[in-house]
Amino acid sequence: MRSRTANWFETTVRYERQTEDGQKKVNETYVVDALTFGEAEEVITKEMEPYVSGDFNVKSISPASYGEIFFSDNENDSHWYKAKLAFVVVDEKTAKEKRSNVNFLVQAASFNAAVKNIDESMGKTAIDYEIVNIADTKIMDVFEHNAPLKKEEKNDKPEFE
Known about the structure:
This protein is mainly beta. The chain folds into 2 domains: 1-64, Ubiquitin-like (UB roll), CATH 3.10.20; 65-140, Roll (Ubiquitin-like (UB roll)), CATH 3.10.20. It is built from 2 helices and 11 strands; from the N terminus they run E-E-E-H-E-E-E-E-H-E-E-E-E. The strands form 3 sheets. The chain has a 5-stranded mixed beta sheet with strand order 1-5-7-6-8, covered by helices on one side. A hairpin with a 6-residue loop joins strand 6 (79-90) and strand 7 (97-108).
């Protein structure tokens, strides 16, 4: 398991996909790492290009509220689960417990595997947490941002792959 914190956007795209019954228009949701809405649109368009042979439209882009995404190394972990974790912090002045909820996206094969993957990732930290909720999502995949490569030119601007 590895985790990544970034600026995530949920994108919904509509395109024609080859199915057993022929060409079919589908709406699918993907998560992309981007700094702006424009960059999110650019990233999802580039990532989907090899899979699209007809019409392609980005239907919506919205900021995702994931504090972190847990990626699995297991090939069988093909689903994405949204998990809400509560972190308990004690206020030093009042000595009262304060709960802070954070959403995570977890890659797993099943609900139980999602719990296991959360525990594996969070076990590396010393933070007390409680799993408040886990729900299956319709997210098809997550696309991470490739680090810009420096191009040796006079302007020295980053070049994207």
